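ok so heres the complex, three chains, lmk if somethin looks off
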Amino acid sequence: MEKLQNLNVPSPLLNVQSVTKQFLGLKAVDSISLSVSQGEIVSIIGPNGAGKTTFFNLLTGQLQPTFGEINFDGKAINNLGAHERARIGMGRTFQISKPLIALNVLENVMIGAFMREPTMERAKEKAISLLRKVGLLQLAPIKAGDLTLSQRRRLEVARALALDPKIMLLDEVMAGLNQSEVSQSIDLLNQLHSEGQTFLIIEHNLKVVRAFSQRVIVLDRGCLIAQGSASEILNSPEVITAYLGEGHKWKRS
Amino acid sequence: MDQILNVLIIGLLLGGIYGLVSIGLNLIFGVVRIVNFAQGELVMLGMYGSYFAYTQFNISPYLSFLVVAPLVGLIGIVIQRFVIQPLRAESNMQIFATFGLLMMFQNIMLMVTKGEAYSIGGESSRWSLSVGELSLSVVRLIVFVAVTLITVGLHIFLNKTLTGKSIRAVTQDKLGARAMGINVERTYLLTFGIGATLAGFAGAMLTPIYSITPGVGGNFILAAFAVVVLGGLGSVWGAYLGGLIVGVVEALAGYYIDPVLRSAVWFMIFLVVLMVRPSGLLGMVGAEEVGFREQN
Amino acid sequence: MNKTKDAADTLSKGGTFADQAIDADSSKLIETPKSLSFKYLGCMVLLFLPVLLLARYPQWINIVAFTYLMGAVAVAWNIIGGFGGQFSLGHGVFFSIGAYMTAALFINYGLSPWITIFPIALVAGLVSVLISWPTFRLRGPFFAIATLAFNEVMFVLANHFDSLTGGPRGLMIPFKAGFANMIFTERSYYAYLMFGFAAFSVGVSVVVRYSRLGYYLLAVREDEDCARACGINVLNVKLSGMAISAMLTSMGGTLFTMYLRYIDPPTLFTMSDIGVKFALLSLIGGIGTIAGPILGAALIIPFENYLRTELSNGLPGSNLAVLGFLMVLAALFMKKGIYGLFQEKYGKANKPALPTPMSVKPGGGAT
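and the predicted structre for the whole thing:
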């Protein structure tokens, strides 16, 4: 487990203490504690059903924890609704991306931009600059329903960026992409990171985890079972067992 | 004291009626997850059907239901197959479609009956049983017994039989049930059929009590929604209990305030439950996804 | 728009030409007030033609007036029902507030409806916020049922408080002709009045749709969780949309009262005639579009009138049975309405070519 933070280091951006979510018969998230510092990239991995998305939902406010505290940017946010959490700087994408298919790409990003820029003109400018940043500007007039999967994912990221977030929570943003799309996306995320963005991502694609994480957290059946650097985690027998069952080894990648 | 007891009894018997009408709706709600606005019209069809059997063939509703109820059930299956099923992903369109069915059924019957109200009337509807100083209407007592029996029967069916269990599986987890090999579409058809049959049965049982007009279904549908919400989605005993509570509250409100304000009573119940305890008294997990949600 | 195809081609040759093209053209990406104004004026001219042509024939005036009135309220319903996705079946409540208050203030205090129409609309807006605030937490069908229940409760209250509403006997407005009273001896003026209201209603709808609120309503309709993640206060957005919709609907009720000069609970609260009608017109015409509901009204109201006069005399209820059947058909086969059918036919011709994914890179640079 991580050592206690040095008192000279500023307090973490996101600090989660013993957060638990109990449904009637099931503890979907069991006493997870974790912290993410400004500028870090932390990945969450784990087998299906481990509670990763539920955990995200607790962070961003779609669900209320049964127990535990969530602190963001120095404030306790348990009582804040999901839209307020977006306002204080939590940007998020969803596993099933749902852009407004009847509107064009520009308008989709504008919907995010409106939060910080209430006028149409300024929101449009902001959306244009973000589309340029993620490489979708040429698609601005296209209806979101006509985009490919990788373009939709990028659109989601642009929309989340429009909130000027302090942290980006990405839920399986690489799912379904082919190799070259994945590496283009990693390039984009790296660029954003170099500009100071903090990331907490859920990822299944271990190549991505290896290429784009500083710290990795493993969940299984709602519990945090391991935490460490990417190479530590991906070679740990515990984690391999959790993912694949007894007696397996990762294939050489 | 006697007065209150009388009012309570009336309320309980009324509750039995509401429970009977709601039980089919509750099943459909809980399983197929749709709001069937036309449920009241299915009851109405049951009433007209058993009236027809009575006037044409002299068969008592307490016998003719054996034919009338399954016939209404068949209509239900047709509705599910051709109207509801195609719209399974679009709950807003379902509202339109079932409301359109409501308008169709009501007005077709209006065309057929030319607006006359029918009533079985006669002595039998006025029989009453004397218990101490209270008098209980026999026909309503029969309804009360019927709804109790049906609730028990449905409970056994859902918990002890394989078919019933597969219905409950679909209620709880559609994807999981499909993964287990349960044919979800067929389960929907079956459930709608049962729900419609129960509506037809309710209609038959209510024929001796109410006068039959094309709009009679509308009388029940709001109360039925209040019952289902109060009792909790997918819970058979919830519908039973909910019916009794709605009946009693309505009787008390009618006695102390004004009988005309019935719909206000149902609506109050509806709202209060949804705000205080959205899953209803005995509702199931997952009720949240259908129509309720945690506070923003 | 061939610009996109050119842009993609140029991109693959290496250059940021595409971005400059987009920047220069950014005004074409979304509707601007100027482009909207043109479209709106064009639309109004089209709408005015039937009035111009038919208002001189007494037998047409009634149909024209009703069509525009119902169409206008359907446009209002569409703001919360179509843009916002909240299927209210209780708009009859706001309609009746407009109707009853206008009548009561006119009969008892001689207040001109031209003056009272707006304050009454504010009242309706307030009521809408009060009753929607608890019910908006309900999803889809349950919200619809709750609004339906409101309608029923209002019906009961209207019958009950007869000192205010005239109870079951209703209220009758005496024929005191005069422009200030909104009572015209020249019947064709009503047709123009209703057209004016329709123009106003469509105007409001346009302003809402292309404002931040409009975009937020669409986002809420599409996916509420996603909307929240964009910082949208979903409840406030719904309440705002509902308030605007309710205010317009109430204004429709005011005009309805002064046109018919007789209102009673059955007239105002029969679901099939009022409550559901607005939703139905929007559905047939094109839910979520701006002019769709008027189109729906133009199709349904005259048709329904025909059914009522031709069939209903022999067979009461047949007009509603047909309407119900149409509703089922529309829900099953015509979800996007007539407008949607048009869009499909003509929209395909205009679809721009997509640049290939490979040519798109972060930072907007060339491949």
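quick notes: Chain A has nine helices and ten strands. thats all i got rn
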